[in-house]
Protein backbone atom coordinates (compact mmCIF):
# COMPACT_ATOMS: atom_id res chain seq x y z
CA UNK A 1 0.00 0.00 0.00
CA UNK A 2 1.38 3.41 -0.94
CA UNK A 3 0.96 6.20 1.58
CA UNK A 4 1.86 9.87 1.38
CA UNK A 5 5.37 10.73 2.55
CA UNK A 6 6.06 13.91 4.52
CA UNK A 7 8.95 15.51 6.35
CA UNK A 8 8.64 15.37 10.12
CA UNK A 9 9.24 19.12 10.30
CA UNK A 10 6.12 19.73 8.17
CA UNK A 11 3.79 17.86 10.56
CA UNK A 12 5.29 18.77 13.94
CA UNK A 13 7.16 21.41 15.89
CA UNK A 14 10.32 20.50 17.75
CA UNK A 15 13.06 21.95 19.92
CA UNK A 16 16.18 20.88 21.77
CA UNK A 17 16.32 20.97 25.55
CA UNK A 18 18.27 23.39 27.72
CA UNK A 19 22.05 23.46 27.96
CA UNK A 20 23.33 22.49 31.39
CA UNK A 21 25.52 25.39 32.55
CA UNK A 22 25.95 25.81 36.30
CA UNK A 23 27.36 29.34 35.93
CA UNK A 24 24.76 30.79 33.55
CA UNK A 25 21.54 28.97 34.45
CA UNK A 26 19.14 30.96 36.62
CA UNK A 27 15.79 30.33 38.20
CA UNK A 28 14.38 27.46 40.27
CA UNK A 29 15.76 23.92 40.39
CA UNK A 30 13.48 21.55 38.48
CA UNK A 31 13.92 17.93 37.32
CA UNK A 32 14.88 17.25 33.74
CA UNK A 33 15.29 14.30 31.40
CA UNK A 34 18.75 13.60 29.96
CA UNK A 35 19.76 11.17 27.23
CA UNK A 36 20.42 8.44 29.79
CA UNK A 37 16.81 8.64 31.01
CA UNK A 38 15.28 7.77 27.62
CA UNK A 39 14.80 4.15 26.55
CA UNK A 40 12.97 2.84 23.51
CA UNK A 41 9.37 3.29 24.59
CA UNK A 42 9.99 4.14 28.25
CA UNK A 43 11.80 6.40 30.70
CA UNK A 44 14.18 5.63 33.57
CA UNK A 45 13.05 8.07 36.25
CA UNK A 46 14.95 6.63 39.24
CA UNK A 47 17.96 8.99 39.16
CA UNK A 48 16.76 12.29 37.77
CA UNK A 49 19.00 15.35 37.98
CA UNK A 50 17.87 18.96 38.47
CA UNK A 51 18.96 22.28 37.00
CA UNK A 52 17.71 25.85 37.19
CA UNK A 53 14.87 26.97 34.91
CA UNK A 54 13.30 30.41 34.78
CA UNK A 55 9.52 30.75 34.64
CA UNK A 56 9.53 31.97 31.03
CA UNK A 57 11.41 28.80 30.00
CA UNK A 58 8.59 26.45 31.03
CA UNK A 59 6.91 26.58 27.64
CA UNK A 60 10.11 26.13 25.64
CA UNK A 61 11.67 23.29 27.63
CA UNK A 62 8.58 21.81 29.27
CA UNK A 63 6.96 18.60 28.01
CA UNK A 64 3.38 17.39 28.11
CA UNK A 65 1.36 14.26 27.44
CA UNK A 66 1.87 12.96 23.92
CA UNK A 67 5.22 14.65 23.30
CA UNK A 68 7.82 12.47 21.64
CA UNK A 69 11.18 12.71 23.44
CA UNK A 70 13.96 11.80 20.99
CA UNK A 71 17.68 11.34 21.67
CA UNK A 72 19.91 13.74 19.75
CA UNK A 73 23.06 11.68 20.40
CA UNK A 74 24.12 8.39 21.97
CA UNK A 75 21.73 6.32 19.91
CA UNK A 76 20.18 9.09 17.79
CA UNK A 77 16.48 8.61 17.26
CA UNK A 78 15.85 6.51 20.35
CA UNK A 79 12.61 7.82 21.74
CA UNK A 80 9.60 7.40 24.00
CA UNK A 81 6.19 9.02 24.46
CA UNK A 82 5.86 11.24 27.52
CA UNK A 83 2.65 10.37 29.40
CA UNK A 84 2.91 12.73 32.38
CA UNK A 85 4.77 10.18 34.48
CA UNK A 86 5.91 13.08 36.69
CA UNK A 87 4.72 16.70 36.81
CA UNK A 88 6.65 19.77 35.70
CA UNK A 89 9.30 17.82 33.76
CA UNK A 90 11.85 19.53 31.50
CA UNK A 91 14.46 18.29 28.99
CA UNK A 92 18.20 18.80 28.62
CA UNK A 93 19.89 19.78 25.36
CA UNK A 94 20.74 16.17 24.46
CA UNK A 95 17.03 15.58 23.76
CA UNK A 96 14.54 16.76 21.16
CA UNK A 97 10.92 17.40 22.05
CA UNK A 98 8.65 16.67 19.08
CA UNK A 99 4.99 17.73 19.26
CA UNK A 100 2.97 16.52 16.26
CA UNK A 101 0.12 18.52 14.76
CA UNK A 102 -3.48 17.42 14.20
CA UNK A 103 -2.56 15.51 11.03
CA UNK A 104 -0.54 12.92 12.95
CA UNK A 105 -1.10 10.46 15.78
CA UNK A 106 1.81 10.66 18.25
CA UNK A 107 1.70 6.88 18.89
CA UNK A 108 1.98 6.14 15.19
CA UNK A 109 5.00 8.47 14.89
CA UNK A 110 6.68 6.71 17.83
CA UNK A 111 6.20 3.29 16.24
CA UNK A 112 7.48 4.64 12.93
CA UNK A 113 10.69 5.69 14.73
CA UNK A 114 10.90 2.34 16.52
CA UNK A 115 10.77 0.48 13.21
CA UNK A 116 13.17 2.91 11.53
CA UNK A 117 15.62 2.46 14.39
CA UNK A 118 15.48 -1.32 14.10
CA UNK A 119 15.99 -1.19 10.34
CA UNK A 120 18.79 1.39 10.42
CA UNK A 121 16.73 3.84 8.38
CA UNK A 122 17.65 6.77 10.64
CA UNK A 123 21.40 6.56 10.00
CA UNK A 124 21.15 8.67 6.83
CA UNK A 125 20.22 11.61 9.08
CA UNK A 126 23.19 11.23 11.46
CA UNK A 127 26.15 13.59 11.54
CA UNK A 128 29.59 13.11 13.12
CA UNK A 129 32.54 10.88 12.28
CA UNK A 130 32.90 9.07 15.62
CA UNK A 131 30.05 10.18 17.89
CA UNK A 132 26.76 10.16 15.99
CA UNK A 133 24.20 12.94 16.39
CA UNK A 134 20.88 13.92 14.86
CA UNK A 135 20.73 17.74 15.04
CA UNK A 136 17.43 19.58 14.92
CA UNK A 137 17.53 20.39 11.21
CA UNK A 138 18.24 16.77 10.29
CA UNK A 139 15.38 15.64 12.50
CA UNK A 140 12.99 17.95 10.67
CA UNK A 141 14.11 16.39 7.37
CA UNK A 142 13.26 12.83 8.42
CA UNK A 143 10.75 11.52 5.85
CA UNK A 144 7.93 9.46 7.35
CA UNK A 145 4.89 7.70 5.93
CA UNK A 146 1.61 9.46 6.49
CA UNK A 147 -1.43 7.18 6.20
CA UNK A 148 -4.92 8.60 6.84
CA UNK A 149 -5.33 9.76 10.44
CA UNK A 150 -7.83 7.03 11.33
CA UNK A 151 -5.36 4.40 10.11
CA UNK A 152 -2.58 6.00 12.15
CA UNK A 153 -4.78 5.85 15.24
CA UNK A 154 -5.71 2.21 14.65
CA UNK A 155 -2.05 1.23 14.21
CA UNK A 156 -0.97 3.22 17.26
CA UNK A 157 -3.75 1.82 19.44
CA UNK A 158 -3.10 -1.78 18.40
CA UNK A 159 0.66 -1.68 18.96
CA UNK A 160 0.24 0.29 22.18
CA UNK A 161 -1.88 -2.56 23.59
CA UNK A 162 1.25 -4.75 23.58
CA UNK A 163 3.32 -2.07 25.30
CA UNK A 164 0.61 -1.46 27.91
CA UNK A 165 0.79 -5.13 28.91
CA UNK A 166 4.58 -4.89 29.04
CA UNK A 167 4.33 -1.77 31.21
CA UNK A 168 1.90 -3.48 33.62
CA UNK A 169 4.27 -6.43 33.92
CA UNK A 170 7.16 -4.04 34.60
CA UNK A 171 5.20 -2.47 37.45
CA UNK A 172 4.62 -5.91 38.96
CA UNK A 173 8.31 -6.72 38.56
CA UNK A 174 9.28 -3.54 40.39
CA UNK A 175 6.94 -4.38 43.29
CA UNK A 176 8.35 -7.89 43.59
CA UNK A 177 11.94 -6.63 43.54
CA UNK A 178 11.14 -3.99 46.15
CA UNK A 179 9.57 -6.70 48.33
CA UNK A 180 12.80 -8.72 48.19
CA UNK A 181 14.87 -5.65 49.05
CA UNK A 182 12.66 -4.89 52.05
CA UNK A 183 12.86 -8.50 53.25
CA UNK A 184 16.67 -8.51 52.96
CA UNK A 185 16.96 -5.23 54.86
CA UNK A 186 14.61 -6.38 57.62
CA UNK A 187 16.36 -9.72 58.17
CA UNK A 188 20.04 -9.01 57.48
CA UNK A 189 20.47 -5.29 58.18
CA UNK A 190 17.90 -4.58 60.90
CA UNK A 191 18.35 -8.18 62.16
CA UNK A 192 14.61 -8.73 62.58
CA UNK A 193 14.79 -12.28 61.19
CA UNK A 194 12.46 -15.11 62.31
CA UNK A 195 13.25 -15.97 65.93
CA UNK A 196 15.55 -12.98 66.47
CA UNK A 197 13.95 -12.38 69.88
CA UNK A 198 15.65 -15.50 71.23
CA UNK A 199 19.10 -15.00 69.65
CA UNK A 200 21.99 -13.18 71.36
CA UNK A 201 23.89 -10.49 69.48
CA UNK A 202 27.65 -10.79 69.91
CA UNK A 203 29.85 -7.98 68.53
CA UNK A 204 26.96 -6.83 66.33
CA UNK A 205 26.39 -10.29 64.82
CA UNK A 206 23.65 -12.76 65.87
CA UNK A 207 24.94 -15.89 67.52
CA UNK A 208 25.54 -18.57 64.90
CA UNK A 209 26.08 -16.00 62.14
CA UNK A 210 29.35 -14.80 60.62
CA UNK A 211 30.52 -11.57 58.98
CA UNK A 212 32.43 -12.56 55.83
CA UNK A 213 33.63 -10.27 53.06
CA UNK A 214 31.84 -10.05 49.73
CA UNK A 215 34.74 -12.01 48.29
CA UNK A 216 33.92 -14.95 50.60
CA UNK A 217 30.27 -15.49 49.69
CA UNK A 218 30.60 -15.86 45.91
CA UNK A 219 32.92 -16.34 42.94
CA UNK A 220 33.44 -13.36 40.61
CA UNK A 221 34.32 -13.99 36.97
CA UNK A 222 35.56 -10.98 34.99
CA UNK A 223 34.32 -10.89 31.39
CA UNK A 224 36.15 -11.63 28.16
CA UNK A 225 38.27 -8.86 26.57
CA UNK A 226 36.47 -8.57 23.24
CA UNK A 227 38.24 -6.55 20.54
CA UNK A 228 36.40 -4.41 17.97
CA UNK A 229 37.24 -7.04 15.35
CA UNK A 230 35.24 -9.56 17.41
CA UNK A 231 32.05 -7.50 17.00
CA UNK A 232 29.53 -8.23 14.28
CA UNK A 233 25.76 -8.45 13.87
CA UNK A 234 25.34 -12.23 14.14
CA UNK A 235 25.47 -14.71 16.98
CA UNK A 236 25.05 -14.06 20.69
CA UNK A 237 24.84 -10.50 22.05
CA UNK A 238 27.92 -9.20 23.87
CA UNK A 239 26.70 -8.11 27.30
CA UNK A 240 28.26 -4.81 28.34
CA UNK A 241 27.29 -2.14 30.89
CA UNK A 242 24.99 -0.61 28.26
CA UNK A 243 23.06 -3.87 27.91
CA UNK A 244 22.70 -4.07 31.69
CA UNK A 245 21.04 -0.67 31.59
CA UNK A 246 19.02 -0.92 28.38
CA UNK A 247 18.73 -4.60 27.51
CA UNK A 248 19.52 -5.98 24.07
CA UNK A 249 19.05 -3.25 21.45
CA UNK A 250 19.54 -3.25 17.64
CA UNK A 251 23.04 -1.78 17.97
CA UNK A 252 24.25 -4.39 20.48
CA UNK A 253 27.34 -6.09 18.98
CA UNK A 254 27.32 -9.88 18.61
CA UNK A 255 29.72 -12.78 18.27
CA UNK A 256 29.17 -16.41 17.29
CA UNK A 257 30.93 -17.48 20.51
CA UNK A 258 32.89 -20.35 18.94
CA UNK A 259 36.24 -18.92 20.00
CA UNK A 260 35.03 -17.78 23.43
CA UNK A 261 35.45 -20.10 26.46
CA UNK A 262 32.15 -21.47 27.72
CA UNK A 263 32.60 -19.89 31.15
CA UNK A 264 31.84 -16.48 29.61
CA UNK A 265 28.32 -17.50 28.57
CA UNK A 266 25.53 -15.54 30.27
CA UNK A 267 22.05 -17.03 30.71
CA UNK A 268 18.83 -15.81 32.29
CA UNK A 269 19.16 -15.95 36.07
CA UNK A 270 22.88 -15.11 36.23
CA UNK A 271 23.96 -12.30 38.56
CA UNK A 272 25.84 -9.53 36.75
CA UNK A 273 27.86 -6.86 38.58
CA UNK A 274 29.48 -3.93 36.77
CA UNK A 275 32.75 -2.90 38.37
CA UNK A 276 33.68 0.10 36.22
CA UNK A 277 32.06 3.32 35.03
CA UNK A 278 28.64 2.78 36.66
CA UNK A 279 28.31 0.41 39.59
CA UNK A 280 25.20 -1.74 39.23
CA UNK A 281 24.00 -5.28 39.78
CA UNK A 282 21.12 -7.29 38.37
CA UNK A 283 19.76 -10.72 37.51
CA UNK A 284 20.16 -11.17 33.76
CA UNK A 285 16.73 -11.71 32.19
CA UNK A 286 17.24 -11.50 28.43
CA UNK A 287 18.54 -13.84 25.73
CA UNK A 288 21.72 -15.83 26.26
CA UNK A 289 24.83 -13.73 25.69
CA UNK A 290 28.59 -13.39 26.17
CA UNK A 291 30.14 -11.57 29.13
CA UNK A 292 32.27 -8.53 28.26
CA UNK A 293 35.16 -7.29 30.40
CA UNK A 294 34.32 -4.78 33.15
CA UNK A 295 31.44 -7.02 34.22
CA UNK A 296 31.53 -9.76 36.82
CA UNK A 297 29.38 -12.87 36.53
CA UNK A 298 28.73 -13.71 40.18
CA UNK A 299 28.24 -17.33 41.29
CA UNK A 300 27.12 -17.82 44.91
CA UNK A 301 29.07 -20.28 47.05
CA UNK A 302 27.42 -23.49 48.19
CA UNK A 303 24.63 -22.87 50.67
CA UNK A 304 24.32 -19.17 49.79
CA UNK A 305 21.20 -18.31 47.82
CA UNK A 306 21.32 -16.16 44.69
CA UNK A 307 18.97 -13.45 45.97
CA UNK A 308 21.00 -13.03 49.15
CA UNK A 309 24.15 -12.39 47.07
CA UNK A 310 22.38 -9.96 44.71
CA UNK A 311 20.83 -7.98 47.56
CA UNK A 312 24.17 -7.93 49.40
CA UNK A 313 25.82 -6.35 46.34
CA UNK A 314 23.03 -3.81 45.97
CA UNK A 315 23.21 -2.98 49.67
CA UNK A 316 26.99 -2.39 49.56
CA UNK A 317 27.19 -0.40 46.28
CA UNK A 318 27.83 2.84 48.16
CA UNK A 319 30.73 1.23 50.02
CA UNK A 320 32.18 0.02 46.72
CA UNK A 321 31.88 3.52 45.24
CA UNK A 322 34.14 4.79 48.01
CA UNK A 323 36.71 2.13 47.10
CA UNK A 324 36.84 2.76 43.34
CA UNK A 325 40.06 3.95 41.72
CA UNK A 326 40.95 5.62 38.43
CA UNK A 327 40.96 9.22 37.28
CA UNK A 328 38.87 8.87 34.10
CA UNK A 329 37.10 5.50 34.35
CA UNK A 330 36.36 4.53 37.93
CA UNK A 331 36.58 0.83 38.71
CA UNK A 332 36.87 -1.62 41.58
CA UNK A 333 40.11 -3.48 42.04
CA UNK A 334 39.46 -7.18 42.59
CA UNK A 335 41.07 -7.08 46.03
CA UNK A 336 38.53 -4.52 47.25
CA UNK A 337 35.92 -7.28 47.41
CA UNK A 338 37.72 -8.38 50.58
CA UNK A 339 37.14 -5.01 52.24
CA UNK A 340 33.33 -4.97 52.23
CA UNK A 341 31.53 -7.16 54.76
CA UNK A 342 27.98 -8.50 55.18
CA UNK A 343 26.00 -10.42 57.78
CA UNK A 344 25.87 -14.08 56.75
CA UNK A 345 23.05 -15.92 58.56
CA UNK A 346 22.80 -19.48 59.75
CA UNK A 347 21.87 -22.01 57.08
CA UNK A 348 18.38 -22.29 58.58
CA UNK A 349 17.72 -18.56 58.12
CA UNK A 350 19.37 -18.57 54.68
CA UNK A 351 17.04 -21.36 53.56
CA UNK A 352 13.98 -19.54 54.90
CA UNK A 353 15.01 -16.38 53.04
CA UNK A 354 15.56 -18.40 49.86
CA UNK A 355 12.12 -20.03 50.15
CA UNK A 356 10.53 -16.56 49.92
CA UNK A 357 12.96 -14.64 47.72
CA UNK A 358 13.32 -17.41 45.14
CA UNK A 359 9.56 -17.48 44.66
CA UNK A 360 9.59 -13.72 44.04
CA UNK A 361 12.45 -14.12 41.55
CA UNK A 362 10.70 -16.91 39.65
CA UNK A 363 7.65 -14.66 39.38
CA UNK A 364 9.90 -11.87 38.08
CA UNK A 365 11.55 -14.15 35.52
CA UNK A 366 8.14 -15.40 34.37
CA UNK A 367 6.89 -11.84 33.87
CA UNK A 368 10.11 -10.98 32.03
CA UNK A 369 9.62 -13.96 29.71
CA UNK A 370 6.09 -12.75 29.03
CA UNK A 371 7.48 -9.34 28.17
CA UNK A 372 10.03 -10.87 25.81
CA UNK A 373 7.23 -12.76 24.05
CA UNK A 374 5.08 -9.61 23.85
CA UNK A 375 7.98 -7.59 22.39
CA UNK A 376 8.69 -10.32 19.86
CA UNK A 377 5.04 -10.44 18.78
CA UNK A 378 4.86 -6.64 18.54
CA UNK A 379 8.08 -6.47 16.54
CA UNK A 380 6.85 -9.12 14.08
CA UNK A 381 3.68 -7.13 13.47
CA UNK A 382 5.39 -3.74 13.42
CA UNK A 383 6.76 -3.73 9.83
CA UNK A 384 3.64 -5.35 8.41
CA UNK A 385 1.37 -2.77 9.99
CA UNK A 386 3.59 0.17 9.12
CA UNK A 387 3.81 -0.75 5.43
CA UNK A 388 0.08 -1.46 5.11
CA UNK A 389 0.49 -5.21 4.57
CA UNK A 390 -1.96 -5.86 7.43
CA UNK A 391 -5.11 -3.84 7.85
CA UNK A 392 -6.69 -3.54 11.30
Automatic annotation (TrEMBL):
It comes from the Bacteria. The keyword DNA-binding applies. Residues 3-177, 206-367 form the Type I restriction modification DNA specificity domain. The keyword Nuclease applies. GO terms for biological process: DNA restriction-modification system. CDD domains: RMtype1_S_Eco933I-TRD2-CR2_like, RMtype1_S_FclI-TRD1-CR1_like. Keywords: Coiled coil, DNA-binding, Endonuclease, Hydrolase, Nuclease, Restriction system. It holds the Pfam family Methylase_S. Belongs to the type-I restriction system S methylase family. This is Restriction endonuclease subunit S. It comes from Schaedlerella arabinosiphila.
Amino acid sequence: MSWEKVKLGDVSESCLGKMLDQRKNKGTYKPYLANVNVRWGSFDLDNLQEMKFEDDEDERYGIKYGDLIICEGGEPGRCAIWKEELPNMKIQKALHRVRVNEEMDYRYVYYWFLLAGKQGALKQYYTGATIMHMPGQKLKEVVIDKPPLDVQRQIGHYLESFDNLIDNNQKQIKLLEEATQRLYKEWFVNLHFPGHENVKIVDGVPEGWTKPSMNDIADYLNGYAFKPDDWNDKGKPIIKIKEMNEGIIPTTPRNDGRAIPEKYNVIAGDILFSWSATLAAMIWDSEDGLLNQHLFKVTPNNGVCREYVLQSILKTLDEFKNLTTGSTMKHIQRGKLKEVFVNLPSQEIMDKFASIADVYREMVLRLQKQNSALKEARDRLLPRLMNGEIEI
